[in-house]
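ok new one. same drill as before - structure tokens go in, u give me an amino acid for every spot. 75 of them this time. try not to just spam alanines like last time pls lmao
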């Protein structure tokens, strides 16, 4: 994923630990990947300033679920 592929979206990541390796044996971390691809990221919490940012809310108030409900079996 590259930021150029979705220029209109403001994609940000919140990791439990951005210093973790991308996969077993990988040399780079999640943080390094975000920096390389110009994505904003944070560890463990959503920063308050992210929540207070002004902008256009383009999301609908309600998103209709189009799937079917799954009945769960009792254990």
């Amino acid at each position: 994923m590259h930021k150029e592929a979705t220029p209109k979206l403001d994609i940000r990541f919140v990791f439990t630990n951005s210093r973790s390796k991308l996969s077993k044996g990988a040399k780079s971390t999640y943080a390094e990947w975000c920096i390389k691809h110009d994505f904003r990221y944070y560890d463990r919490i959503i920063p308050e300033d992210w929540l207070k940012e002004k902008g256009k809310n383009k999301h609908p108030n309600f998103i209709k679920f189009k799937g079917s409900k799954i009945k769960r079996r009792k254990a």
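DSSP finds two helices and two strands in the chain. and btw The first helix runs from residue 30 to 36.
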